What we know:
about 350 residues; Nonspecific Lipid-transfer Protein, Chain A; 3 domains; five-stranded mixed β-barrel; five-stranded mixed beta sheet; about 20% helix; about 25% strand; disordered N terminus
Amino acid sequence: MEVKRRAGEYVIPHEAIPEVMSRVTVSPEDGAVCLERTEPMFTTYWATAGELSPFFLAVMQEKKIIGARCPACGMVICPPYMLRCPVCQNEDRSLVDLEVGLELPQVGWMLGTPPITVFANARFARYAPFGRGRVILGESQSALPIQVFTTTGFLKPGIFRRGTQVKIVFRSSRIGFSTDYFAVPLDEVPPQLRDKDGLEETELVWETPELLTPTVTDDRRASFPAVLEAVRAFVGEIPASPRAERDLLNWNRRIAVKTGGGSFGLALAGQAISVVEESELGEPDLTLAVEDPNVLVAWTEGASIVNLIRTGDAGITNLQDMETIFKLDRLPRSIRRDAEEAQAP
């Protein structure tokens, strides 16, 4: 877009600069009455994301976690987020440069209890559920921000807490980002691998909770046809909702749904969902099991399948594909928002 400027104007057009606001106030420093006003300040600068820093190069190329040490006082920090010691000075009063490249042990402990993220944004959805905490490694006086996972299934409160010993694990494919490495409880790592540096995720055994067969009852069988009709009507609304279609963009999945009243399939393709016979799916990518089929009616009205999985009232065969469940949970909201906007005057 071309920005037109009158002669003598600055690069930033006058229309983009807010009017100066002012008020009479009291200075907190000396208590004097003064005129306080806002003025815009524009700063142009370059910022780096850090992918080519020594820290991320060591992660990507060598599967190492490095820190920095002050040669004067011995202070160690990880990650090496600063280049000079905040305390020590040279003879000319300049700050002492830190020595970057100190390799740290890959077993540490949690600084605090990490919060658990179940509903992640698009950037991290493929990793959910995960915890995000801080780990102390070796002599480091700062904590390494890190994602934490469990190999035992769905991450629940109590697995990690302050002081939990953890093992650093590296992704098999590393791209110079903070998700290239993560931590799992040390007691979930086989004893022969606990002292191994550069442990990769594929060397661990990732358990998926056994998917129980829903208990079939007469009441559930009786309600199943109405549930199936409600699900079919719901997915039929997707083509009229641009938001819902965006939710399913480039997402193809075959989902077997098993309930205590009967089973069916959901075929996700072409930004739409079809309700099909389970036998039409072939080998499903994902199986969702719920005891009471009526919870699926609640889902079409905005209830969360993720919450059912989190509380143990539903199960899936592949916890690494939670992103598909997130998309299913997003659909009722997307359809509702588009419908509300269409009715707005």
